[in-house]
Specification:
Elements: H1 2-20, H2 23-28, H3 34-50, H4 58-84
Length: 88
């Protein structure tokens, strides 16, 4: 149950971060478009909310968790790097 409650804020954060970014930053970072990532993070967050890690829909919960974690670990750092510019 603790994992389920810990995963929900991660999904909400991923969606909110994707929503707050500029659309051109996604293409500049050579990632999918902003609407695609909004859909992926929204769907992942919905799966985290609707299914539990120990229930019948565990596969959907894991897929939602993987989707938001891919955004957090891969896409978010690239977006930050593109918007800040090169570092010294």
């Amino acid at each position: 149950m603790v994992i389920w409650w810990a995963a929900l804020p991660v999904g909400v954060f991923a969606f909110a971060h994707a929503l707050a970014q500029r659309a051109d930053a996604f293409t500049a970072a050579d990632r999918m478009t902003k609407p695609a990532w909004l859909g992926i993070t929204a769907g992942g967050t919905a799966a985290l909310f609707l299914f539990s890690p120990g229930g019948v829909g565990m596969m959907f919960w894991i897929a939602g968790l993987v989707a938001v974690l891919v955004y957090i670990v891969d896409v978010r750092p690239k977006l930050i790097e593109v918007q800040r510019g090169p570092r010294w």
